[in-house]
Amino acid sequence: QKEVEQNSGPLSVPEGAIASLNCTYSDRGSQSFFWYRQYSGKSPELIMSIYSNGDKEDGRFTAQLNKASQYVSLLIRDSQPSDSATYLCAVTSTGGGNKLTFGTGTQLKVEL
Amino acid sequence: DAGVIQSPRHEVTEMGQEVTLRCKPISGHDYLFWYRQTMMRGLELLIYFNNNVPIDDSGMPEDRFSAKMPNASFSTLKIQPSEPRDSAVYFCASSLALGEWHEQFFGPGTRLTVL
């Protein structure tokens, strides 16, 4: 079983719609959760972080965390073609200090 | 700030040759990470350093891989001898660790092709 699991997609949504990206993790001791965006041929860049159960909003992005279900999600409202990218979920490891484990990513396509 | 710097950006080599990838972290960051990304396996952590000391090298695939950080501003990842299955994009990242905040900043990556 992979430590961090994501649906590889592609997830296709029309422009202006809400895109919902999901991630599950296996380490119950994980404390910090991150969403990175990676455009094709580029390096990952951090877009959201969340540490407590519930929702965290930043502009068009909302991260949701449920530690009991070991589930973290990312909602993108008013999706734009520029949001088309691969979204990587990353989780810290129990006792792992600053070590992150990444999922394989979900490819998002926002269609005109 | 120039961000994380990696060189070379592209490397094409033949099987059996030695390959050295280089990284300069963001000034003041005390963590440095080496990752490998492939389509099949995604982004995998190979090794990370804290204050120039290797902390976890459990992701290093085998003895052909080695990494060093002789000072706070430079690190190398060496593959000797290289094999075609080592072809991947290698990223270096750096971060501070302040409480819960562990944002890792990635370099542009080195695309390695081993023929």
Task: Write a short abstract of this structure.
The radius of gyration of chain A is 13 Å and the shape is globular. With 112 residues, chain A is mainly β.
Instruction: Tell me the Rg of chain B in angstroms.
Output: 14 Å
Backbone shape of chain A: globular
Low-confidence stretches of chain A: none
Helix content range of chain B: under 10%
Count the beta strands of chain B. 11
Oligomer: heterodimer
Share of β-strand residues of chain A? over 45%
SSE class of chain A: mainly beta
Per DSSP E runs of 2 or more residues, the count of β-strands of chain A stands at 11
* Class computed from helices, strands and strand pairing of chain B: mainly beta
Q: Return the string of H and E elements of chain A.
A: EEEEEEEEEEE
CA-based gyration radius of chain A: 13 Å
Instruction: Tell me the series of helices and strands of chain B, N- to C-terminal.
Output: EEEEEEEEEEE
Separation, N- and C-terminal Cα atoms of chain A = 37 Å
| Helicity of chain A, as a percent range | under 10%
Tell me about the largest β-sheet of chain B: 7 strands, mixed
List the helices and strands and how they pair.
The complex is a heterodimer of chains A (112) and B (115).
Chain A: E1 4-5, E2 11-14, E3 19-25, E4 33-38, E5 45-50, E6 54-58, E7 61-66, E8 71-76, E9 85-92, E10 100-102, E11 106-111
Parallel strand pairs in A: 2-11
Antiparallel strand pairs in A: 1-3, 3-8, 4-5, 4-9, 6-7, 7-8, 9-10, 9-11
Chain B: E1 5-7, E2 10-13, E3 19-24, E4 31-38, E5 42-50, E6 53-56, E7 65-71, E8 74-79, E9 88-95, E10 105-106, E11 110-114
Parallel strand pairs in B: 2-11
Antiparallel strand pairs in B: 1-3, 3-8, 4-5, 4-9, 5-6, 7-8, 9-10, 9-11
Describe it for me?
The complex is a heterodimer of chains A (112) and B (115). Chain A has strands at residues 4-5, 11-14, 19-25, 33-38, 45-50, 54-58, 61-66, 71-76, 85-92, 100-102, 106-111. The N and C termini of chain A lie far apart (37 Å). Chain A is mainly beta and 112 residues long. Chain A is 0% helix and 53% strand. Chain B has 115 residues and is mainly beta. Chain B has strands at 5-7, 10-13, 19-24, 31-38, 42-50, 53-56, 65-71, 74-79, 88-95, 105-106, 110-114. In chain B, the strands form two sheets. In chain B, strands 2, 4, 5, 6, 9, 10 and 11 form a seven-stranded mixed beta sheet that branches. Chain B has a four-stranded antiparallel beta sheet with strand order 1-3-8-7, with no helix packed on it. Chain B is globular and about 40 Å long. The mean pLDDT of chain B is 93. The interface between A and B is medium-sized, with 22 and 24 residues.
